[in-house]
Design brief:
CATH class: Mainly Alpha
Strand order of the largest sheet: 1-2
CATH topology: Rhomboid-like fold
Number of strands: 2
Radius of gyration: 19 Å
Order of helices and strands: HHHHHHHHEEHH
Strand content: under 5%
Distance between the termini: 35 Å
Number of helices: 10
CATH architecture: Up-down Bundle
Structural class: mainly alpha
Largest sheet: 2 strands, antiparallel
Helix content: 55-70%
Shape: globular
């Protein structure tokens, strides 16, 4: 491998994040395909009262992806490659890694707050016995690929015991930072033939995620985690701008 190779052309933190995510996905995919062992159960983020919850999951979840196909990790890693490279050059490796991890944690915090509110709403519709049953037996059913027929019990089991996985929260944080630091850079989207300024693309993504989250559209996607990564990113970037860490020369 020469110094001019593809991977060596990627800044080191972005390169290692790409390799780590891809390697973990490959391991998870192989284990699921050959052993029916779902690594996401252990490393994906669970609600704090789930028997599968572990505090370390607030970090590990952002390196896990859907292990049934390639779409989830492909789009996350494509976005990380496209926008992370330039952002790392501007922020520097250490600050860039801090930002990535912080927005990933922020995404988890916001998603957990939303899950708390959803759980509270569902539990009001259930008897104490039904709630107790879900907390005692739901995780085992989930491990077997099963759940409850009763709608409220099914919903509660999904909220409590289904793992949240993906680098999307951190990736949306990177998109937010890119839009704030390079607001007028023209970007091309696959389905739109004209360039869109980065700041408008970020605003559009944020509004779409808010709509999807509130409306329940694509309810198997953690839309509020995406928003959480962007929200935490806003505060970090604004703080760095105030401190002069990020200057106007990048605009």
């Amino acid at each position: 491998m020469t110094n001019n190779s593809f991977f060596n052309s990627i800044p080191p933190v972005t390169r290692h994040l790409l390799l780590l995510n891809i390697l973990i996905w490959l391991i998870s995919f192989v284990l699921m395909s050959t052993q029916h062992f779902d690594l996401n159960i252990y490393l994906g983020l669970h609600w704090v009262k789930s028997p599968d919850f572990n505090p370390a999951q607030i970090i590990t979840y952002m390196f896990m992806h859907d292990n049934s196909g390639i779409t989830h990790i492909f789009f996350n890693m494509f976005s990380l490659y496209m926008f992370g490279r330039l952002l790392e050059q501007v922020l520097g490796g250490k600050r860039y890694l801090f930002y990535y991890i912080s927005t990933g944690i922020g995404a988890a915090v916001i998603q957990m707050l939303v899950i708390y509110m959803q759980i509270s709403s569902v539990e009001k519709l259930m008897s104490p016995e039904m709630v107790y049953t879900v907390y005692q037996q739901g995780a085992d059913l989930m491990h077997q690929g099963l759940t409850y027929a009763q709608p409220e019990m099914k919903m509660l089991n999904s909220l409590v015991n289904a793992p949240i996985v993906g680098a999307s929260g951190a990736v949306f944080g990177i998109l937010l930072a890119f839009g704030m630091i390079f607001p007028n850079i023209p970007l091309y989207l696959f389905f739109i033939p004209v360039p869109i300024k980065a700041k408008y693309m970020v605003i559009g993504y944020g509004l779409l995620e808010l709509f999807f989250g509130v409306s329940g559209t694509m309810d198997n996607v953690a839309h509020f985690a995406h928003l959480g990564g962007m929200i935490f990113g806003i505060f970090i970037i604004l703080y760095w701008k105030k401190k002069g860490i990020i200057s106007g020369r990048y605009y």
